[in-house]
TrEMBL record:
Residues 5-234 form the ABC transporter domain. One of its GO terms (cellular component) is ATP-binding cassette (ABC) transporter complex. It comes from the Bacteria. The keyword Plastid does not apply. GO terms for molecular function: ATP binding; ATP hydrolysis activity; transmembrane transporter activity. This is ABC transporter ATP-binding protein. The keyword Nucleotide-binding applies. Keywords: ATP-binding, Nucleotide-binding, Transport. PROSITE patterns: ABC_TRANSPORTER_1, ABC_TRANSPORTER_2. It comes from Arcobacter ellisii.
Length: 310
């Protein structure tokens, strides 16, 4: 499989504060995949994306884009020469330009290509409007259309969903995935949001303090986290014995359960309940669909899935 982005030993320290934001990162992004860097605020995601784009200079290492060296000790190609496109958090649309002019701004794309992009981003008929006349979803599509029109080797998405409310966010993330797949483009997406990462990504890298801790599909990293940090970051767990943990969906409340407990709290999440139970002075979280459980009720439970050991 062709690797569209490859970093080797990519290293960056911000002198101010002496923060290592990229610790010798080796990473490959395959052609056609949506690859996500998932990490808490301050983990180094944006700096990594900016180094790929040529907007930040690494201290050491190499970057290849479509097998072409774009950064090394002796090479540092300008952003334009790297054939990448960035979609920023706020979309950065130009308010005084029409949608068509926003999309073609700085591009020498032909009318035919503009037509094709308008068609694929479902913006046909909107081209003479101004950004403020469009919905949040349409504005995202304009930002995407502008990024895609020059056929970049890779689309870099810097938390494009982070400034929108939950309802719109769910809608935008569906659209975003559809659009990226419609153009069959390779994308690097960065986010702190696990749900966005799980929904959008073919593969995910978990980043923490400038280190990539694990790379895999959503299922792989959720079910087989490399360490306790990754496991906790991806979902709730309870320690059931020394260094052994279980996720709430892997505990089952049932009459023939092995262990006894008392229900301490019930939280309704719409599609399921999260039940806090207390057993032998241990508190565990359980996911359940049972409508009839009550606080104070004595129940039995069993462990019904992977035990994670670290
Ligand atoms: N130009 C800079 N000079 C000094 N420190 C910086 C600079 N840019 C970022 N940092 C610091 O580097 C660390 C990583 O920042 P970065 O923006 O890459 O993280 P992030 O994971 O993208 O976080 P966020 O989601 O909050 O943007 C942070 O501690 C940040 O304060």
């Amino acid at each position: 499989m062709n690797e569209i982005v490859q970093t080797k030993n990519l290293h960056k320290i911000f002198c101010k504060g002496n923060i290592c934001v990229a610790n010798k990162i080796d990473l490959s992004i395959n052609e056609g995949e949506i690859f996500t860097i998932l990490g808490k605020s301050g983990s180094g995601k944006t700096t990594f994306l900016r180094m790929i784009a040529g907007l930040e200079t690494p201290d050491d290492g190499e970057i290849f884009i479509d097998n072409k060296l774009v950064f090394s000790k002796n090479t540092n190609l300008e952003p334009k020469q790297r054939e990448v496109a960035v979609v920023f958090q706020n979309y950065a649309l130009l308010p005084h330009l029409t949608i068509a002019s926003n999309i073609t701004f700085g591009s020498d794309a032909s009318k035919e290509i503009l037509e094709e992009v308008l068609e694929k981003t479902k913006l046909k008929g909107q081209e003479n409007k101004f950004p403020h006349e469009l919905s949040g979803g349409q504005q995202q599509r304009v930002a995407l259309a502008r990024a895609i029109i020059n056929k970049p080797k890779i689309l870099l998405l810097d938390e494009p969903l982070s400034n929108v409310d939950t309802e719109l966010r769910t809608h935008l993330r569906i659209e975003l995935k559809e659009m990226i797949k419609a153009f069959n483009i390779t994308a690097l997406f960065i986010t702190h949001d696990k749900e966005d990462a799980f929904y959008l990504s073919d593969r995910i890298a978990i980043m923490h303090e400038g280190n990539i801790l694990q790379i895999g599909t959503a299922k792989e990293i959720y079910h087989h986290p490399n360490d306790l940090y990754c496991a906790n970051f991806l979902g709730k767990m309870t320690e059931i014995s020394k260094n052994s943990y279980i996720r709430p969906e892997h505990i089952e409340i049932c009459e023939n359960g092995e262990f006894e407990a008392t229900i301490k709290d019930i939280i309704f999440y719409g599609s399921f309940y999260e039940i806090k139970i207390s057993s032998k002075e241990k508190e565990l979280f359980v996911h359940s669909f049972d409508d009839h459980l009550q606080i104070g009720q004595k129940i039995k439970y069993k462990l019904n899935g992977d035990i994670l050991k670290f």
